[in-house]
Amino acid sequence: MKRFLQQRNLGIFAVVVALFAVFSAIEPLFATAANVERILRGIGILFVLAIGQMMVVATRNIDLSIGSTLGMSAMALAIVAKDHPSTPLVVLILIALAVGTLAGVLNGVLVAIAEVPAIIATLGTLAVYRGLVFTISDSGTVEAQFIPRAVKRLAITPTRNISWLVITGLIVAVIAWLVTQRTLTGRRLFAVGSNPDAARARGLPVTGITIGVFAAMGALAGLAGVLYVGQYGTVNASSVGIGFELTAITAVVVGGTNIFGGSGSVVGTILGCLVIGLLDNGLKVLRVDSFWQQAAEGAIILVAVVADTLIRRRQELRRALSRRSGVAWTPAS
Amino acid sequence: MGETTAGLACSGVNKAFGGVPVLVDVHLNVRPGEIHVLLGENGAGKSTLVKIVAGLVAPDSGSIVLDGHDLAGRSVAAAQSVGVALIHQEPRLFPDLTVLENVWIDEPSRGRFRRSINLRSLGDRTRQLLDQLGCRVALDARVNSLSVADQQLVDIASALRRELRVLIVDEPTASLTPSEVQVLFGVLRSLRDDGVTIIFIGHRLEEIMSIGDRITVLRDGCVVCTLAVADTDEDELIRLMVGRDIESGIRTGGHTSGDVILTVSGLSSPGAFAGVGFEVHRGEVLGIGGLVGAGRTELLETIFGVRRRTHGTVVAGGHHIVRNADAIRAGLGLVPEDRGVNGLVVTRPIRENIVAPNMRTTSRRGVRRRSRETDLAARLIDRLRIKTLGGDQLPNQLSGGNQQKVSVAKWMAKELTVLLVDEPTRGVDVGAKAEIHGLLRELVAHGTAVIMVSSDMRELLSMSDRIVVMREGALTGELDGATADEESVLRLAAGAPGAAA
What we know:
Strand content of chain A: under 5%
Number of strands of chain A: 2
Largest sheet of chain B: 6 strands, mixed
Radius of gyration of chain A: 21 Å
Structural class of chain A: mainly alpha
Oligomer: heterodimer
Structural class of chain B: alpha/beta
Strand content of chain B: 15-25%
Radius of gyration of chain B: 25 Å
Order of helices and strands of chain A: HHHHHHEHHHHHEHHH
Largest sheet of chain A: 2 strands, antiparallel
Number of helices of chain B: 18
Strand order of the largest sheet of chain B: 6-7-8-3-9-10
């Protein structure tokens, strides 16, 4: 399995290198340290969301509500900061995390206990949570001037030239890697997605795992909400987090995770985010029309999925051929 | 493992699904350290009984006692904690995970903070477990790259890591080769000698006689009797299981006089077989023999127009068959090997499954007629003696044999010219097997031709008028059904031409 994933990650890594080389060759400004830092900062939020989404997809589920969850967390943080300017930073962050986790737990309960298919359940909560963002904010905007400097520093102040956005993303990635690769609990995510019937037959706590993974996703969306406020300063009810779920899913799929569950890796997901970040930034640097940028993003998801399917089919064929030497007879007596 | 004093005792176990009794007042005593065989037709209740013992299904009443613990209605985890493990026919594994992960995935977390276990520290222990079973797979191999036999051993290794008291194996040999079966039996015997109690479910009587110590026969959810293997024989077991006499092994042999109704020539499908040609006559059974993987299933699929071909033609009644629609129009039908996946739509009622290829006759001007559908389904359920609550029941609630009958029934309402059947009685009990053979003979008597792929030698030899044999994607020879024997088929299937098998 390790070798297989590494092979697959190698392919995505090659794409990352190729994109970087092509953009650098066309536009020298692309390969500067400042621009690389900008690329990484630009995908900080995506990073956190995509790693959560990868774990959800590994269990054969999907979470479409994370853009709205991020919106709720960011808006809750901004409103508390505005109404109670003396609230300490830690409390603000905890509020955002709590809102996100609660939203995630509700998703998990809908999927695991009410047995609503994840795509439907989270499509519903996508709308519900967005509605709540409008409700708590009176359809308004919390302007940047009300956001405490400590929050805004998350994005603005570089720590040795690397912003907290990037550092947070890396910490999340390391923790997620340890959990998914090194612990049984983490491997169970993949077990549930790989064969749900077997998971039940072998007594794995499928309900708990499912709620847990959605809760973790919610918490990460809450964290992404904190990062959002730090990066943009202003929180607007009708734009905060809109469409983020789709970019996260794109990164996950481009990163080699099987959308039907059972597989996925943190490293692949990071590479998937990088592909999106490079394209985004590179096309901007080259001053490509923003409509074409969107089309490009859509195109790479299709290329990734088609390539993945072709690779899988080849491997299955090879496996089938290597098995053909089997002998099976029921002797007549 | 160690010495066990008391065995497993099931008493007064009752269970009904949707009002249909599946187990009726079942009493079963399994002695410690014996291999106890559960025998019965599909639908007799064996699988339900062992699922209750393993904690997967709760009984309506009754008790399951192991060493003073009542397991009835508890959970899988509770059964596991007292040493009960259930191994299914299809191993309950996770194809995307490694061998190591599959063995340990359900290990409960322990320690102060219920800390999750570090997998890498378990490598040596896992190797030891697999060595004990003679299984040489790599620990980091993904399970979907293993053979079914190795997958089963991985499944058993996973059960072995706890103190194992009762090991239940549910039809473990269905997809194993003879040598793999011998390996598995060796493993089971050595576990028994270590004091593990083994409950074995199987259909093949030869195997049961060789592995079992005692046998309990179930029929229609009731225990018929428990016998020592040494005191019985195959004929008695069949009588006990079925409760009626069965015609078995009547050789049809040699009716090849009818007109040619299907001609296959130079047929090739990439990666499966090449250059296959033969003729099929009205009213004959053409058996296709060969080893698993010889390309037989793929050949049937290609004739039926559902698999891509690169060369060759299939002609029936003067019409070329290229696409699946051509095949159905020409009166071909296919009963595939895997009824749960390709043979039936298990999420739709039996009635719709039967009606599916007959819509032309049950509808009027493109509009479905419920009454005609119901009539047709009822007629075929009756004619094929399918045991069901009615046409509205879902196929996956039926036993394997009855599911297979539904898979056959959908073709029986039409004027069939050729019926293609792939392993028609695999995983089907003795009674249903005889009934399915009877159906095929009935079809043949009315002029339909049957092309039958079978890995069951007795079935192949007794049913076929002619036998063609495939090896590694090519036809290696044709035999007369009346004179063919196991050796001549095997020689064509496995050996070099003319060499001794």
